[in-house]
Design brief:
CATH class of the largest domain: Alpha Beta
Largest sheet: 5 strands, parallel
Shape: elongated
Number of helices: 11
CATH superfamily of the largest domain: Tetrapyrrole methylase, N-terminal domain
Order of helices and strands: EHEHEHEHEHEHEHEEHEHHH
Bound molecules: S-adenosylmethionine
Distance between the termini: 88 Å
Number of strands: 10
Structural class: alpha/beta
Length: 287
């Protein structure tokens, strides 16, 4: 049968577990079994999952280093009538994971794209964080280098929606240290570590408490992490002690220096202290 008369296949974007293999959905199993090809980020890693559920579908590798070539190959297969299921090592494809190029090309070629929803570490963490979840921003991974990370955090300091970050074991402590340079130390944070795995730990506290725990307990630096950070509250007023320190320092230092020193002493956000300092200065000069 010539290709042109064949029905076009569908691209299934399938979520897989983020640690506990039992979190696979029935529909995900059925979809992977019925597909003609499973496109997996790491075929060796996913073989374990497919074996667990007796899925014998042919796998091909689809990852960030072969995305361009494999997109062409897989779109060819889809247009030829094959059903393709896209999976990554953990959770939902395209969420800090490969797949964008393939899904985008499928839309361009009018290939039906079908989500098979399931695990996502960000959403699992948010669901247990007890930090407002009505409006949130997913930031994924912060830049690896501290200067770029601090610049990004500065941009986010006054974001009022809840912030969600992904982090790995080798950077969790440095990232929390950088949080403490930008955000006020009394911001509420929930650290979700090793979700659904043996050493799952969900800790809610102030930024200073979370940093203290991660620093004191090396085990808390191991594994995979989601950080849920309370948004900035413009109406969060500075307490009387902080105001007193700011007023004294403002007599001897520039507004920026006074704010920086006050923030260091009290753990409040430098931005918040600085804005308060400017308001007080203009109030005083208009008296
Ligand atoms: N696509 C995945 C999802 O839907 O969540 C995310 C993949 S991303 C490459 C991997 C990052 O997700 C990890 O570094 C960590 O920040 C987070 N993550 C994945 N599994 C996790 C788990 N079981 N516990 C905590 N964080 C996890």
């Amino acid at each position: 049968m010539p290709n042109s008369s064949r029905k076009v296949g569908s691209l299934f974007v399938v979520a897989t577990p983020i640690g506990n293999l039992a979190d696979m959905t029935y529909r995900a199993v059925e979809t992977l079994r019925a597909a003609d090809i499973v496109a997996a980020e790491d075929t060796r890693h996913s073989r374990k999952l497919l074996k667990e559920y007796s899925i014998s579908t042919t796998m091909v590798a689809y990852h960030e280093h072969n995305e361009r070539k494999q997109t062409k190959y897989l779109i060819g297969k889809l247009l030829g009538g094959a059903d393709v299921a896209l999976i990554t090592d953990a959770g939902t494809p395209l969420i800090s994971d490969p797949g964008y190029r393939l899904v985008s090309a499928a839309h361009d070629q009018k290939v039906p794209v079908v989500p098979i929803p399931g695990c996502c570490a960000a959403i699992a963490a948010l669901s247990v964080a007890a930090i407002p979840s009505d409006r949130f921003v997913f930031e994924g991974f912060l830049p690896g280098k501290s200067a770029a990370r601090l610049a990004r955090l500065r941009e986010l300091d006054q974001e009022q929606r809840t912030l969600i970050f992904y982090e790995s074991a080798h950077r969790i402590k440095d990232t929390l240290i950088d949080f403490a340079k930008i955000f006020s130390l009394d911001r509420t944070i929930t650290l979700a570590r090793e979700i659904t795995k043996q050493f799952e730990t969900i800790t809610k506290g102030t930024l200073s408490q979370i940093l203290q725990r991660v620093t004191d307990e090396p085990n808390q630096q191991k594994g995979e992490f989601v950080l849920i950070v309370e948004g900035y509250h413009p109406d969060k007023k500075i307490d009387a002690d902080t105001l007193r320190i700011l007023d004294i320092l403002a007599e001897f230092l520039t507004p920026s220096q006074a704010a920086e020193a006050t923030a260091k002493i009290t753990g409040k956000s430098k931005n918040l202290v600085y804005q308060t300092g400017l308001t007080r200065k203009s109030e005083k000069s208009s008296d």
